[in-house]
Write a structure and sequence with these properties.
The chain has eight helices and 16 strands. It has about 325 residues and is an alpha/beta fold. The structure holds flavin-adenine dinucleotide. Heterodimer of an alpha and a beta subunit.
């Protein structure tokens, strides 16, 4: 079985859930190997728990001051050694840029934003603002696929991983763009919007009062999102915006509250697995795409729902 390389997405060695999802998908296609670029102890055990038999460990002393180009060179050099059957990368802005650069280096086809990948490497993507679902497969070179968060439920396996310390050479050309400053995301105690399994969003219908939206989100362990109308009104920063000009989310559950369902909002959430909407207008377009719809005032419906969930949890 071919090795499947998975680029590890992590923050100071703490592996993000998206990587566990990629390892789970990689196991369908071949034998997963992780590529960890970082300093300090590599999270070999954490990666083995989701099936990484080998972990290529690349010390990032020479890499971390630069933007994405060196990471593409790392993958190029490991691919030359491992001759993998495919390379899987998280569908973040950085992941997609790495994938594009790597595709040129390996003269390979690349597919971005897959929401599923089957055992034959056939991907599923949602395109044209979610109006079409496309199945595709790379037919040239080493398939490079970026996969969106929540594409698979991470599955643990028994087994140990082996760290493979790997030396790489980074070209001067890859060091052209230097990072001058970086700020960690403000800690909110909630999951990151694009990675969250549940997203609870509010729109203009909140009237600027997100209390009920946030209380439900916290009860569900969810991220909070917002429509552009809510962001433009200054109720939430742009980092909360879901949609064509905001973030694209694909959670297991998306709860839209006081959001009409404009095409630009849908573009950011309609691949969510289950969609629930609360809107006081029964004609609101959002009801065309929901699995469950509640016609009512969100300031009444959401507290009742939150209390019910609390009561059932005991
Ligand atoms: P509205 O359309 O005003 O809807 C508010 C809804 O709340 C209504 O359906 C109303 O019935 C309901 N409501 C009111 N009060 C209550 C209540 N008490 N309880 C329950 N329901 C209530 N939009 C995005 O969201 N994301 C984007 O990324 C984005 N990008 C865009 C890019 C471009 C180029 C353009 C032109 C537009 C973009 N938009 C985007 C804007 C988009 O077209 C809509 O204007 C926006 O999504 C509307 O936000 P909304 O649904 O919150 O507000």
């Amino acid at each position: 079985m071919a090795e499947i390389l998975v680029l590890v997405d992590h923050v100071d060695g703490a592996v993000r859930k998206t990587t566990n999802e990629l390892l789970t998908i990689a196991r369908r296609i071949g034998e997963p190997s992780a590529v960890f670029i970082g300093s300090g102890a590599a999270p070999v055990e954490a990666l083995a728990k989701f099936g990484a038999e080998k972990v290529y460990v690349v010390d990032d002393a020479e890499i971390k001051g630069y933007l994405v180009a060196p990471k593409a060179e790392v993958l190029q050099q490991i691919a030359a050694q491992a001759n993998p059957g495919a390379i899987l990368i998280s569908s973040s802005a950085e992941g997609k840029e790495i994938a594009a650069r790597l595709a040129i280096k390996l003269e390979s086809g690349v597919i971005t934003d897959a929401v599923d990948v089957d055992a034959n490497g056939v991907t599923t993507q949602s395109v044209f603002a979610g109006n079409y679902t496309v199945q595709a497969k790379v037919t040239k070179g080493t398939p490079i696929i970026t996969v969106k968060p929540n594409a698979a439920a991470p599955e643990e396996v028994a087994g140990a991983g082996t760290a493979v310390p790997t030396a790489v050479t980074i070209s001067d050309a890859a060091k052209a763009a230097t990072i001058v400053a970086s700020q960690p995301r403000q800690a909110t105690g909630r999951p990151e919007l694009t990675e969250a399994a549940i997203v609870v969003s509010g729109g203009r219908g909140t009237g600027g009062d997100f209390t009920a939206v946030e209380a439900l989100a916290d009860e569900l362990g969810a991220a909070v999102g917002a429509s552009r109308a809510a962001v433009d009104s200054g109720w939430k920063p742009h980092t909360f915006q879901v949609g064509q000009t905001g973030k694209v989310v694909s959670p297991q559950l998306y709860v839209a509250n006081g959001i009409s369902g404009a095409i630009q909002h849908r573009a950011g959430m309609q691949t969510s697995k289950t969609i629930v909407a609360v809107n006081k207008d029964e004609e609101a377009p959002i009801f065309e795409l929901v699995d469950f719809g509640v016609v009512g005032d969100l300031h009444t419906v959401l507290p009742a729902l939150t209390n019910e969930i609390k009561a059932r949890k005991g």
